[in-house]
Amino acid sequence: MSVQTDIVAEISGRIHRGELGPGDRLAPERELAAQLGVSRDRLREALLALEADGYLVAKRGATGGRFVTELAAPFAAWAARTADELDDIIDFRLAVECQACRFAAPRRTRSDLDAMRKAVGRLDAAATPREYRLADVTFHAAIAIASGNERLAAAVERARGELFEPADELWKYGRSESLADHRLILAAIETQVPDDAARAMADHIERTRRELGTLVRRVATS
């Protein structure tokens, strides 16, 4: 892969996971280049590619910069591109996140549990799709960290970055079921039952498969 491709994948992955959402402003070029460990020239090329793909829009003026779009165009393109691969992507997520739960259950620390509990509290209190997605990202990241395996945690991040879950759409359907899923996962990790934790995560991801699959098929065929 080229440096530009890696940068595009990193930033688009953050958007797919919900770490960056519609209306969010990216850090200034100098700061973002330092974060990613790349030159500003390579970063600028990647940002222009993301603009061309509809992920970002550039605005001028004192309050300008590069902002995440409403994501309709890139999601439609992603849906068309991955409609036949969605099950493979979900299977990958099942493999790594269920195993992360199996490891996290016996290995979690008090601080790991605190992070998960706070994330579930934020899920429950979320008033917007953006707040819910950020809490969701935090919860799954906390499990990955609790697994105690850096390579597995990196695989979880990659798996979640390959999925593109539009927060506004998924917010409309199944929020209460999703919250219940997270609570079951947390309870199993709290009580240190690996099989129950993995099963709860599998049920949660299969729900995502159904909901996202319906949306992807609708968008891809429209």
Could you name the key traits of this structure?
single chain; 222 residues; mainly alpha; Arc Repressor Mutant, subunit A; Four Helix Bundle (Hemerythrin (Met), subunit A); 2 domains; two-stranded antiparallel ribbon; 11 helices; 4% strand
Description:
The protein is mostly helical. It has two domains: 3-70, Arc Repressor Mutant, subunit A, CATH 1.10.10.10; 75-220, GntR ligand-binding domain-like (Four Helix Bundle (Hemerythrin (Met), subunit A)), CATH 1.20.120.530. 74% of the residues lie in helices and 4% in strands. The chain has eleven helices and two strands; from the N terminus they run H-H-H-E-E-H-H-H-H-H-H-H-H. The chain has helices at residues 3-17, 29-36, 40-52, 72-82, 86-107, 110-125, 129-146, 150-162, 167-171, 175-190, 194-220; strands spanning 56-59, 65-68. It has a two-stranded antiparallel ribbon with strand order 1-2. A hairpin with a 5-residue loop joins strand 1 and strand 2. Helix 5 (86-107) runs antiparallel to helix 8 (150-162), helix 5 packs parallel to helix 10 (175-190) and helix 6 packs antiparallel against helix 7. The longest helix has 27 residues, at 194-220. The two termini are 32 Å apart. The model has no long low-confidence stretch (mean pLDDT 93).
